[in-house]
Design a protein that fits this description.
alpha/beta, Nucleotidyltransferase, domain 5, 2 domains, 8-stranded mixed β-sheet, 5-stranded mixed β-sheet, 13 strands, globular, disordered C terminus, kinase
């Protein structure tokens, strides 16, 4: 089956699209990447999404318009990447997260915009979307959702692996070697690129959106006491299952970091924020994983940050820090591939969540299916 996966993460840096061929055992499929691209959001749409993620109020009419604009952008991304790879049987669209509330004394709540029914109608391809809500209804966090795909695609016969996504928010999937009987683990580790991107935009007066290869941060000096002050945040002490987003580590948190770092050179601020991401990852491994893995496999935008990677390797001297590309799964397309697989599982009636990761009471089928009848999409 030829499937398109669509994904835009908390960095809101564009729509990742992947075309994959899925064959073999549906539960542990063989996945071949045929094409992977990132399509930029129109600048005004990206600005609106970031504003909403930052807490800007919308009327119901504005919310509907934003939902439809995101769906149109996702549909166009699917049409573009499908041009040389037809026929496409299925689309899995994560959508764009604009709000996430982890469960506490009440059910969690999450909102991903980008209507699946509209994507199906525009593309003429059956579409699965809204993956997180079924897990949340069962008391889970609805996040992270990619670990079961990592288990299927990246487990190693003899080595323990930690698959570390560094998007706007970081998350990890611990994959014990398949010759062991231990369970899997996974959770959001904390901020990934989100604070760094906010800092770069602030420091460059909006001329830059990210620190390419960590070059700017690499010129700075790390101030350990400041980093440890930030690491005292309660999230880092919270026991998994746990998830987070821009609601916690967003503009308000960055402003506090900026105030804490008053008087420091710009490069020092970036070096300290990079170290916060790195140490939040390392300390979460030390606290919550059964043991340190032999390999850490990076994916997401942060996998291109050479300075961040070098700091992570320095703090994990006995672990080999690689990217998923190095072991055969494209690091830039991995999240989009994951939602293609999750859509494929939904169509085959295969559970898509890991309750030990998300905290849900039981396994669940993830995603709502929108079929195509004539020129209109109907929920199935």
């Amino acid at each position: 089956m030829r499937v398109i996966g669509l994904m835009s993460g908390t960095s809101v840096d564009g729509i990742d699209a992947a075309v994959v061929e899925i064959t073999g055992d549906p539960a542990r499929p063989q996945v071949t990447l045929l094409a992977g691209e990132t399509y930029d959001y129109p600048a005004d749409l990206r600005a609106q999404i970031l504003a909403v993620c930052g807490g800007a109020a919308l009327s119901m009419q504005q919310l509907a318009q934003l939902d439809e604009a995101i769906a149109q952008a996702f549909a166009q991304a699917a049409l573009k990447i499908a041009q040389d790879h037809r026929p496409i049987t299925l689309i899995g669209s994560h959508g764009q997260t604009v709000f996430h509330r982890p469960p506490t004394d009440q059910l969690g709540y999450t909102m991903q915009l980008g209507r699946g029914d509209l994507i199906a109608a525009v593309t003429g391809v059956e579409t699965v979307s809204n993956f997180r809500v079924a897990d949340i209804a069962l008391g889970g966090h609805g996040a992270p959702l990619v670990p079961p795909v990592d288990v299927a695609l990246l487990s190693h016969p003899t080595d323990d692996r930690a698959v570390q996504n560094i998007g706007g928010i970081g998350n990890v999937a611990f994959l014990p070697a398949t010759n062991r009987t231990e369970t899997f683990a996974g959770f959001d580790t904390g901020p990934g690129n989100v604070l760094l991107d906010l800092a770069v935009a602030h420091l460059s007066q909006g001329e830059k959106t990210y620190d390419a290869d960590g070059a700017w941060a690499s010129q700075g000096q790390i101030h350990p006491n400041l980093v440890q002050q930030w690491l005292a945040h309660p999230y880092f002490q919270q026991t998994p299952p746990k998830s987070t987003g821009r609601e916690l580590f967003g503009v308000d948190y960055f402003q506090q970091c900026l105030a804490d770092a008053a008087g420091l050179p710009a490069a020092d601020l970036l070096a300290c924020l990079t170290e916060l991401t790195v140490l939040s990852i390392v300390q979460s491994y030390q606290q919550w994983l059964p043991r340190l893995p032999q390999q850490v496999l990076l994916c997401g935008g942060g996998s291109h940050n050479g300075y961040l990677r070098s700091r992570l390797q320095q703090h994990l001297p006995t672990t080999r820090v690689l990217t998923t590309t190095a072991v055969g799964l494209d690091a830039d397309s991995k999240e989009a591939i994951a939602f293609a697989v999750l859509a494929y599982w939904r169509k085959h009636g295969i559970y898509g969540n890991l309750p030990q990761v998300t905290g849900a009471r039981e396994f669940a089928l993830l995603g709502e299916i929108y079929g195509v009848a004539g020129n209109s999409a109907v929920i199935a």
